[in-house]
Design a protein that fits this description.
about 350 residues; alpha/beta; 2 domains; 13 helices
């Protein structure tokens, strides 16, 4: 884990120095993995290179007028993740809009996985990317690096681990082990679900099947201020308090150990960052209820690596999971990558012997 953090810093060290910037594409949805990425980016910018995030927004709340007012000609950073391509077209369209409209300053795409099902969409992205005079693209696996270097020839392309590895400090909570003997099958159900790993592989009596528990929350940054306040109260008082007292107690320890809420108060649009930090806590609490995790989410795997949790890592619908594992985390001793269901069973048996 610490080696990956060092590699991340070395890769991002290729950037030119800047004193302020915009950070765009905030994840105003409940996928905890993207919030791990966002906070990793915030901490890298503000703590590692000591730059100021003068503007931050989701794609839905983006304002070109406010951006210009807040940052002038400073660099624009686009959040990393797994949506560079045509599988999640809304986010690719926003990325291409920013690159097309802001050619007068550096644009930096933080570590992404690349996937285009339609070659025509890749060709169109290449034209837009290559027309920018100062575009840096970080990619987070060997497969994506090959696509990028072949097609985005006028861009600086750099391979780097995921931005979540900036959060190595959360490993401090890994010593608080849970007594449960359950196994969590952390399973996504969207278009990235691999058909070869449907939810019906042989189960254990202690198997719990769920996606991120954050998907059950009432949330959204596009609501009115009053509706958002009510949603936040419902989440904090009922879903994360009265209904789940264990979550509430664990959160008190979390907030006593980390003092970032005050830190976020000094950042632009502090509510965004505080909400992401809250999501990360909930992902950690969810995982730490179990002795072993099976996950088909890349950030299920990354969170397990950060926390030192034994886990089985499964493929997704395209190369993202396996290529990331083969590029960066293949030597993690408490992880097994399973290409078929039989490897899941043997992997579980092997890892349980180490618990």
């Amino acid at each position: 884990m610490h080696n990956l953090t060092e590699i991340l810093h070395q890769s991002l060290g290729r950037l030119k120095d800047f004193e302020r910037c915009a950070l765009l594409d905030y994840p105003d949805y409940t996928n905890i993995g993207d919030h791990l990425i966002w906070i990793g980016s915030v901490f890298y910018i503000t703590e590692k290179i000591k730059a100021k995030i003068s503007y931050a927004s989701s794609i839905n709340n983006f304002s070109g007028a406010i951006l210009e007012k807040q940052i002038g000609k400073a660099p624009i950073l686009l959040n990393g993740g797994g949506n560079l391509g045509d599988l999640w077209p809304k986010y690719q369209a926003f990325r291409e809009y920013i690159i097309s409209h802001y050619r007068d300053r550096p644009v930096i795409i933080l570590p992404q996985s690349i996937y285009f099902a339609n070659p025509a969409n890749l060709d169109n992205a290449a034209k837009i990317f290559n027309s920018h005079p100062d575009l840096t693209l970080f990619v987070r696996d060997d497969y994506s690096y090959e696509i990028a270097t072949k097609n985005f020839k006028n861009c600086q392309v750099v391979k780097a681990p995921d931005m979540a590895f900036q959060l190595s400090q959360i490993s401090a909570l890994s010593t608080d082990k849970q007594a449960s003997k359950s196994i969590l099958y952390h399973c996504r159900q969207d278009q990235e679900l691999s058909s070869s790993f449907a939810i019906d592989f042989p189960s254990f009596s202690s198997l719990v099947v769920e996606d991120w528990t954050s998907f059950k929350w009432v949330l959204g940054t596009n609501k009115s201020r009053a509706a958002q306040t009510l949603a936040d109260l419902f989440r904090e008082v009922w879903q994360r308090g009265i209904k789940t007292p264990g979550d509430w107690m664990f959160r008190q320890k979390w907030e006593d150990y980390f003092f970032y809420n005050n830190y976020f108060n000094n950042l632009y649009n502090q509510q965004l960052h505080s909400r992401s930090w809250s999501f990360i806590h909930s992902g950690i609490y969810q995982f730490k209820q179990h002795q072993l995790i099976i996950t088909n989410r890349l950030h299920g795997h990354i969170l397990c690596v950060l926390l030192g949790l034994p886990h089985i890592f499964l493929p997704n619908s395209y190369h993202k999971n396996e290529s990331f594992y083969n590029t960066w985390t293949y030597s993690v001793p408490f992880c097994r990558f399973a290409k078929d269901s039989s490897q899941v069973i043997t992997g579980i048996e092997d890892l349980l012997k180490q618990c």
